[in-house]
Amino acid sequence: MTGCLRFVKNTDSSRWEEISSLLKLAHAKNKAAGMDMALPGLPTEELKSFVERNNGAMFLAMDDDKIVGTDCVIFKDYKMWCGTGMYAYECLASVHPDYHHQGIYRALDKMRDKYISEHGIDRVLMDTHEKNSRVIDIKEKSGFKKVGLKVFSNHYSVVMVKWMNKAPYPDFVYAVVFNVIRIYRKLRYKPGNVKRFGI
Ligand SMILES: CC(C)(COP(=O)(O)OP(=O)(O)OC[C@H]1O[C@@H](n2cnc3c(N)ncnc32)[C@H](O)[C@@H]1OP(=O)(O)O)[C@@H](O)C(=O)NCCC(=O)NCCS
């Protein structure tokens, strides 16, 4: 770390090249381990356009003027077995490899949740490659439950939800329903024969 860490909500669209490079760097290890996720790998212009057309809010961790962490929230409306209506969708979470295990993601997580609550939204969803056990562990420790499985052209992604207040069902309900969905989707859909299936 070179200076003082700060956490900001980004309003400066000139930093997209840097955000895009950080995402690719942070995901390089995932990619080498066969976890190739679509969104972080998008070219800079497409990434910027994805966030802007969804009115996304970017949260950044800065070490002096260097971006060392990212997180993004967009709001969506969807119906799922565990809830309907508007929800927040978290994406583009990354921390520079030199800054891992220092609580940077945890701080971004707090900032993101505050923003979501201020918008009167009661739940946040995210998904990640089913083999991304580091992220799944972090998410479970911070109160997310596994609720679904998306099928992409080259992998399955676990869908997880956290309620800002109290989860409506006891933990065993999420565990049972998630496992039923997981088994069904894996039997029914194989990556490669679908473009994308899920939320
Ligand atoms: C996943 C990633 C963002 C984590 O960043 P990080 O800054 O190293 O994470 P933190 O230091 O904030 O988390 C540290 C600890 O706090 C815990 N934690 C984080 N948020 C928490 C919360 N809200 N409540 C409780 N615990 C929490 C984590 O479990 C973790 O514990 P551990 O280090 O003992 O395992 C980082 O590893 C990364 O960039 N990975 C590659 C990109 C990637 O996979 N992105 C996610 C795509 S979905």
Question: Mind sketching the topology for me?
Answer:
Blueprint: E1 5-9, H1 16-32, H2 44-53, E2 57-63, E3 66-80, E4 83-95, H3 104-118, E5 123-129, H4 133-141, E6 145-152, E7 156-163, H5 171-188, E8 196-197
Parallel strand pairs: 4-5
Antiparallel strand pairs: 1-2, 2-3, 3-4, 5-7, 6-7, 6-8
Helix pairs in contact: 1-2
Coenzyme A (COA) binds at residues 26-27, 30, 93-95, 100-106, 109, 128, 132, 134-135, 137-138, 141-142.
What does the model show?
With 199 residues, this protein is an alpha+beta fold. It has a single domain (5-193), classed as Gcn5-related N-acetyltransferase (GNAT) (Aminopeptidase). Helices cover 35% and strands 33% of the residues. It is built from five helices and eight strands. It has helices at 16-32, 44-53, 104-118, 133-141, 171-188; strands at 5-9, 57-63, 66-80, 83-95, 123-129, 145-152, 156-163, 196-197. An eight-stranded mixed β-sheet has the order 1-2-3-4-5-7-6-8. The structure holds coenzyme A (COA).
